Amino acid sequence: MDEEPLIRWDWIGRNWPNIQSLLADHVVMAVLPVVFALLIALPLGLASVRWRWLYQPTVGVMNVVYSLPSLAVFIVLIPVTGLAERATVIVPLTFYALAVLIPAVVDGVASVPAHVRQSAVAMGFRPLRRLVSVELPIAVPVVLAGVRVATVSSISLVSVGALVGRGGLGYLFIDGWQRQFPTPIVVGIVLVVLLAVAADGLLVAAQRVLTPWSRARRAA
Amino acid sequence: MAVVAGAAALGARSARSHVITFDGVTKRYADGTVAVNDLHLEIPTGEITVLVGPSGCGKTTSLRMVNRMIDASEGKILLDGVDVQTIDPPTLRRGIGYVIQQAGLFPHRKIVDNVATVPYLLGWDKRKARTRAMELLERVGLDAGLAERYPFQLSGGQQQRVGVARALAADPPVLLMDEPFSAVDPVVRADLQDELIRLQNELNKTIVFVTHDIDEAVKLGDRVAVLRVGGTLAQVDDPETMLARPADDFVREFLGGDRGIRRLSFVPADLPLRGDLTVPIDAEVSEAAGAAASSAVSWLAVVDGEGRPRGWVSTEGLPPAGKVADLRLLPYGTFEVNGGSLRSALDAALLAPSGCAIAVDADGKVAGVATREELARATAKVAADGAAQPAPAEQAAQSEQAVPAEGAGRG
Ligand SMILES: Nc1ncnc2c1ncn2[C@@H]1O[C@H](COP(=O)(O)OP(=O)(O)O)[C@@H](O)[C@H]1O
Ligand SMILES: [Mg+2]
Fold first, then answer.
1. Residue B31 C-alpha to ligand 1 middle, in angstroms?
2. Which of B19, B214, B221, B257 has its CA 20 to 30 A from that of B207?
3. Is the torsion defined by CA of B252, B255, B259, B263 positive or negative?
4. Is residue A1 in some structural domain?
5. What lines the ligand 1 site, CB under 6 Å?
């Protein structure tokens, strides 16, 4: 064991197809929760802006969920969604992402300056059109900042699913640990980090395209 | 159906005059604050009416009740006789331009699209709306190159101009402006004010302009309405009358200490002019001495070949020979003979060691000289016209201020 090198390149070569499919599985299980959470957080966040009393209870529930240990949640879900199923990972991760994205949507809409909202009213916007063409576009930078946090944490949390049989690249950690063989562990860590960096970079690029007015403001 | 009725009312209005009537309007907020109290006010068509008063006196509230961003608690607001309560708010608002202090531009839209906001809302096609927006940018004095920028890339003054262009985009007959120039520095503010006066001369909108700055009110207003805290109307008058005859102590105090001097801005410089107090720049010194002696004065205004003023010469201690051009020319001030105010004439006199003001025509050519005696007589007459005022002690102090021409002449 002592002379075992940190990386055995030949192992990587032999297992490459397997690593690739783990990576793909990881991406799907990390990204879908963020997409679902965004679809849920938008209406819920907007409702919380419209009816302020909704906000505290919603965020409270989300924070309790967020505080639950992920492994415990995975295990509780097994009877419902099945062992080694994607859903067992995707469902809890969706809740974690929601805990980040609901406040992001609420803060995003709150980031619209009062004078901008009022001048929209004064120009003669009706409420729905004002929401769609003034308030939501201005909320985009704040919401996207939340999406970045949710995405990166989702990518890292997927690995825990390996303990219930479905963890994408997390499988490599378990495999390496069980066999006292460092190469898969190193490969897993590097790929998870690369994935997180790539996803974040993609989101930053998306933000630049979507909100040129806000990028330039930061530069100025 | 309210929408249709509203639009019809709006259409009818743009064909007629655009009077706004506050008929016993009171606004009581939920917490019991009475922001506006039984306001009766007629805002005439095609004029700038300024609502002015200290902070919290209900100016913004009054303005926002016109486009129903706030609804009145009691009383009615009529637009050409139509109660605004009967018009669907978004429809009403699309027919009323609105400009606020921070401009309120949409940060995520390019300047041209900001300006085209209301045309878009009215369903104009995009090309037409943008063409209209470009026209307006030019109209408010902005470079077409700014059209594709975002608001944060513009200075405060430029943003404010965009705000005005946006308010005018759909050519609304009525414009509401809530302290639109308060947040920019004084030089830019003066530019924007001049620009508004120029625009209004072309457009003849019915404008309600809110400010806490009495100088701005006096400069812009065809009529000025002073409000006091508690939301009651203290006085409505044209600025000149208000400066001459403030209704009470509150208005007098609000108008400020140099009310007498400022009043002179509204008095035309109807001064007798002397034509014998000038000398051509290419004349001989001896000619100047002769002219001074025959007019019994010790100052002459030097005029060049094109008839423009060059300065004053003192005719005391002249050299025996030489040209006027070689003498030391002293500073001078001018006022416009047609349309200039008595204040501008006094100002011109204060710039010259002679204490006299040079009158020029529209081309800048010398039309004559107003002597300090005539200036003193004119200011004394203004003081006498205002003497019907209730506070004699203050009147005395004011007229002392109002004849500085003589004092300056001695210097
Ligand atoms: N939404 C509100 N609720 C309660 N009081 C208000 C509200 N808006 C304004 N006020 C009060 O009404 C008064 C007039 O306000 P405003 O019209 O904004 O004055 P101004 O524009 O002249 O400064 C102030 O005393 C202000 O505090
Ligand atoms: Mg105000």
1. 11
2. B257
3. negative
4. no
5. B 29, 31, 33, 35, 55-61
- Cα of B56 to ligand 1 centre, how many Å? 6
Tell whether B182 and B325 lie within a shared domain: no
How many Å lie between the centroid of ligand 2 and the Cα of residue B90?
22
Contact call for A124 and B121, based on CB within 8 A: yes
The answer to whether ipTM exceeds 0.90 is no
Q: Is B202 left (phi over 0), alpha (psi -120 to 50) or beta?
A: alpha
Owning domain of residue B334: 278-380
Whose Cα sits closest to atom 1 in ligand 1? B29
Which CATH number does the domain housing residue B72 bear? 3.40.50.300
The reply to whether B66 and B201 lie within a common domain is yes
The answer to whether residues B373 and B282 belong to one domain is yes
Residue B24 maps to a domain: yes
Q: Which atom of ligand 1 is nearest to the CA of B27?
A: 12
In a domain, B49, yes or no: yes
Question: Domains in chain A: how many in total?
Answer: 1
- The per-residue pLDDT for B228 is 94
- Identity of the residue in B69, B104, B153 whose CB atom sits nearest the CB atom of A115: B104
Of B104, B105, B118, the CB nearest to A124: B118
A85 pLDDT higher than 80: yes
Number of domains in chain B: 2
* Domain carrying residue A174: 9-214
- Is residue B102 in some structural domain? no
- Do the domain assignments include residue B140? no
Q: In chain B, what residues touch A220 (CB-CB under 8 Å)?
A: 152-153
In this structure, is residue A197 part of a structural domain? yes
Residues B193, B330: one domain? no
Taking a contact as any Cβ pair under 8 Å apart, which residues of chain B between 85 and 144 contact chain A? 89-94, 98, 100-109, 117-118, 121
Ligand 1 centre from B35 Cα, in Å?
A: 6
pLDDT tens digit sequence for B300-316:
999 999 999 999 998 88
Q: Is residue B85 domain-shared with residue B205, that is, in the same domain?
A: yes
Please state the atom number of ligand 1 nearest to the C-alpha of residue B54. 22
CATH number at residue A89: 1.10.3720.10
Domain assignment present for A130: yes
Determine the Cα–Cα distance for residues B34 and B26; give it in Å rounded to an integer.
7
Across the interface, whether the CB atoms of B107 and A126 are under 8 A apart is answered no
Task: Report pLDDT for B267.
Answer: 87
Looking at residue B99, its pLDDT comes to 96
- Which of A115, A123, A132, A140 best tests the B interface by mutation, with the highest count of B CBs <10 A? A123
Model pLDDT for residues B99-129, shown as the tens digit of each residue: 999 889 999 999 999 999 999 999 999 999 9
Chain A to chain B, count of Cβ pairs less than 8 Å apart? 74
Within a domain: A3:
no
- Which ligand 1 atom sits nearest the alpha carbon of residue B57? 22
Distance from CA of B124 to the nearest CA of A (A): 15
